[in-house]
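discrete fold record:
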Amino acid sequence: MSENFRSRVVTQGTQRSPNRAMLRAVGFQDEDFNKPIVGIANGYSTITPCNMGINDLAKRAEVGLRQAGAMPQMFGTITISDGISMGTEGMKYSLVSREVIADSIETACNGQSMDGVLAIGGCDKNMPGAMIAMARMNIPAIFVYGGTIKPGHYEGQDLTVVSSFEAVGQFSAGKIDEKTLYGIERNACPGAGSCGGMFTANTMSSAFEAMGMSLPYSSTMAAEDAEKADSTEASAKVLVEAIRRQILPSQILTRQAFENAIAVIMAVGGSTNAVLHLLAIANTIGVPLSLDDFEAIRHKVPVLCDLKPSGKYVTTNLHQAGGIPQVMKMLLVHGLLHGEALTISGQTIAEVLKDIPAEPPAGQDVIRPWQNPVYAEGHLAVLKGNLAQEGSVAKISGVKNPKITGPARVFESEEDCLAAILDGKIQAGDVVVVRYEGPKGGPGMREMLAPTSAIIGAGLGDTVGLITDGRFSGGTYGMVVGHVAPEAYVGGTIALVEEGDSITIDADARLLQLNVSEEELTQRRARWQAPTPRYTRGILGKYAKLVSSSSLGAVTDSNLF
């Protein structure tokens, strides 16, 4: 058993123990004091459809834990709906919530000396937040994904939440009428579950399955299907066995596990946010990982899955075609996965995948055969240059023109940028710059889904570039570059860009360049002054003071002293 369990048996070994008295009040009987206590970090909330089905899953986890001989202790943790807060000041709290979730799980589990934790989450930051906590505590742990939403339908189209954002741009450009706009909005999200494409939530759930911290197939199950609840109960039983065997996150979250996750993210066409979150988790567990590692793996791994936002299908289609195990088996067969990596079940990745076919099933084109990928190389490119000395991240899937050089259109906030796009002030060939939206400058590194969707909706996705020190939604695609570091707030070159400057985005050369002489940049830098912080108190004030560069994962607990 864990040190927590052993020490609790010693300190609570008499009937007079006040600790035991408190536990009796929540249902412990004499025989229960010799069982491992397992936390259920319950992300249930009616704030978002992503999390509204989670409480039922938490109750199934309780059943599984009790049947396996453990004592479940349920506690709540928060969520922020990215989709609802998108385009508002509220989005500044989204990435911050990752840290709050990690802190809350760590606080509850360590404060109550829990022997293990089963975390259940749905919306984007639930997953990396939970995994950061698991890495910090290093007690046996498993993640249960709340499940993906099923697609909405309107006029013969499969819809996701991104469809409604793009519809706004289409309506503003006169491409659809008001009836169609509201028809899409009313039908895009039909029920419970996280956003249905290979956006951030489904990307991170897939990554955690690839890393061995979630059960096979669990990352692509629909929230409303019975198999999701069954998988949750099975996860609880696997966790209890892991507690007995003391299988710890530090044994699972190895360098090999991170490389496996990156390979799967490339193969499924996952979100740019995965780069930020994996860097943060690696930082916490102490595994060396950098932006250059993503670029190295990108060159080796093809995009095998034709999934939204840039592709045709949603995550439920991927599940029906064989899910993440099928993708992993194809990578394993071609030497792009570490089969010896350990999983929470105690099996290796190779053992988990031994009965999976080497090729995807016939009669479907969600998962392409190895010889016919969607793209020959991965889609998440790391761009560097004088505009991003530390690096930046671009999603280049679906991009017809991988290189653009054009005049800078500079905006100091997402709101100003969106207004210009909707007013028709952005033209083909422009390179839009949205700055002071980074981890410190925002603060909180907002996602730019509204501007990027408006660009796509206006038909400018192949001819307009957009760069930002903020983030992008997993639903974003087009010639867009985010996570530009150093950010504007700390004096990065992006702060020195002036209206009309020539900027080059070259995905093939992995280049992000401001075409201005070093002499001129030196003069501009001498004139530049750091702006007044937007928040000086509260959680955003604390976050801005503590947060690291996006190139390090935007973490808040590195080098505190």
Residues 6-16 have pLDDT under 50 and may be disordered. The two ends are 33 Å apart (CA to CA).
